Amino acid sequence: MAARRQWSIAGQLFALQATVIVLLVAVAAGGAFWLARTDTEQAAREEVLAVAKTVAGSPDVRAALRSADPSAILQPYAEATRVETGTDFVVVMAPDRTRYSHPSPEQIGQKFLGEIEPALAGRAFTTTNVGTLGESVRAVAPIRDGDGRVVGLVSVGLTTRVINRRLEKQVPLLLGAAGPSLAVAGFGAWLLNRRLRRQTRGLGPAQMTRMYEYYDAVLHSVREGLVVLTTDRRVALVNDEGRRLLRLGAEPDLVDRPVAGLDLPPAVTDLLTTGRDAYDEPVLAGDRVLVANQRQARFEGDLVGTVLTLRDQTDLRALTSELDSVRALTDALQAQMHESANRLHTMLTLVELGRTAEAVELATRDLALAQQLTDRVVGAVADPALAALLLGKSAQAAERGVDLVIEPECRLDSSPLPTTDLLTVVGNLVDNALEAVAGTAPPRRVQVFVGVVGGDLVVRVSDSGPGLAADRVADAFRRGWSTKSTGRGLGLALVGQVVDRHGGDTEVGPAEGGGTRFAVRLPIPEEVG
């Protein structure tokens, strides 16, 4: 069975408005009709009362009442008055209700039907009664003689049929006013319905409720941060993960707030304020590495805002960094294997040629150099992870034709800080130095110092590269700065995060003999120191 079609909000509102408008117009028309009827009836009362008072005050009527045959005089007079005034009856009677005139001559001499007591008391009045001609609005006025005594009565009336005919003449006017009012109100309701239908996309209440519930549940449940902005750069939505990643949990309601007024990381603020497209762009938010994707949102070709999604890759970056270190060490070992194979072939050839002494000298010299480097690193650095990192970087530097020197003063018996943070600082500073000297003319040199100085852990890396311009020193530890031409590096920014987390400081300046020296000073916790 086909699903029952649901009315949209616009359709329901239009039906409700149409019903209300019809009811209002009907009530207004009914009220106007009632008022018109009341006015018509009141006008009829005033009309018959005026005629009755005029007839009652006529000297001819008083004289006729004193004659021997009042009907002979009063009947023609009353009929002439009735026709002239347009009333339905003019009846002159005696105080005992005996009629002297009537539109139906057979009723002359009969008793008048209806109330006359107020007129007998000397007061003219109007009333509605049913008489020989049917229901009518009538007026009864007293006829007085020269001494003021009531000697007769006059009743003038209009039947209800006549009053209704008068009222019917006003119906076209009432309909003429109600019709345009209904048309104008209906057209206004149609315009409002059209606008509302466009704004609600023709959805019904149940559909919009279901959409809101589903969308709200999904958007706040996904593991990606979501920030939606309007076209005027105001916040339309920030889901729970977005609040967590951007540290907005303590912020009040963010909806409709300008993005420029939010306390956001600079990289995120730059993305949101510019509205530019971004694809898997790394940004730093506090101690987290986020991957940002931003695109403009359009509906049926119209720009409706901007959508920014954020993924937390802090842990993945740490694992990637460790993997890069292992890969670098593997590459270095592979290069050493090839180098060792070449030297081994050389020594075997020397032995085959009978030049044993030279073969022994070559093997002893290479073994001594390798052992000397290992002894220096292991002797200076007790932490096995850091020692392995330095050895791997030494092999990597040798493969690139760079002389990596461990300064003689380098000494670290144990790591006073978390090993991962120490590896982040040393590894990224050394990588930055290797990149700085890449492509420069020999000799290429990188010096490394790690040790405790004055109660602080100091990491100092110098290179013989082209140096760092003074105007770029302040940007060195910001996200996106790199010695690479792409300018998309995160290494030094990660170093800056570690420094901030431990309350340390950094120093960037020229190295002795040219190049750049990066120095990081990290306070050693009291319980460790």
UniProtKB/TrEMBL annotation:
The Histidine kinase domain, residue ranges: 314-526
Domain of life: Bacteria
GO CC, alphabetical: plasma membrane
InterPro entries for the chain: HATPase_C_sf, HATPase_dom, His_kinase_dom, sCache_3, Sensor-like_sf, Sig_transdc_His_kin-like_C
Topology of this chain in the membrane: Multi-pass membrane protein
Protein localization: Cell membrane
Cited Pfam families: HATPase_c, sCache_3_2
Keywords: Cell membrane, Kinase, Membrane, Phosphoprotein, Transferase, Transmembrane, Transmembrane helix, Two-component regulatory system
Keyword Kinase set for record: yes
Reactions the enzyme catalyzes: ATP + protein L-histidine = ADP + protein N-phospho-L-histidine
SMART domains noted in UniProt: HATPase_c
A single GO molecular function term of this UniProt record: phosphorelay sensor kinase activity
Record-listed E.C. numbers: 2.7.13.3
Protein name per the record: histidine kinase
Chief localisation class: membrane
